[in-house]
Write the structure tokens for this entry.
Amino acid sequence: MPATKTKIAGVEFDSYVLNASGPKDATMEELEIIGHSGSAGIMMKSCTIEPREGNEEPRSFDFADGYIQSMGLPNLGYRKYVEFAAELKKKFKKPILASVSGFSKEDYVLMVEAFQKSEADLIEVNFSCPNIKGKPQVGYDFEQSENVLASIDNLGEKPVGLKLPPYFDMSHYAQMAEIILRHKISFITSINSIGNTLIIDPEKESAVIKPNNGLGGLSGNRVKPIGLANVRTFYNLLGGKVSIVGVGGISTGTDAFEYLLAGADAVQIATTFEKEGAGCFGRINNELQEILEKKGYNSIEEVKGKLKYL
Ligand code: DHB
């Protein structure tokens, strides 16, 4: 079978598929399950300075071709994930990824600094949590993005990446790409869930989740075209200087193959992991290998970014 090993920001991964920050990655028990699974790395839940319970329940809803949630960053606080990174590093031979979600520039500085000194291999800076009342998604505020990045550029040598919200307008892509290229960003993870969407149960005549009057982040199969467009557009704008991790609606090897054509160096899985469990990582990677073999490709590199235009 063709190898699917890859690199994100120079860090080696044994396969193309790992977990995304979000589902089932907040406790040590959950992280150990990811460690034992086929996931190529262990990504931890986005953390905040202090532990959080998160939003009121019901705060997530699973439906046929998607998922909506407004979790509100339930997590154990960043100190715990610094400890977990060291424990996981000892137990598993795969890269450890930290995700930080600040409420201020100072929060980001404190947490990035802490993970720079930790056993984590990569640091994902979350600019796209849509579920905190009164807090805009940083990635939609270009001035604030610039500000935060200027303050975390020189905190250490570990690769820092950005988890981006989906963009829909070429001028926004261009502005964010310029900001990324001005700073020490080694990878982007694109896309986060589409923020502030609404799913209605017509029988009950009701929203399906409680927080924010039913508004929540949409993920799963329905968001794949948006994820592909974001990966492709950033692939074109960033000119190979920044690794790209694709996320959004990947449930099969074919989905992963499409992200590879669009230009992703690796993919992360959230909704399918939530729905199917930890077997999904190995399954999707195996399916991708079968597709590569059938098409006569021997490596990820041969296909990466090779999308044809009509
Ligand atoms: C949450 C949701 C997100 O999409 C994210 O990036 C971070 C946190 C949440 O509500 O917990």
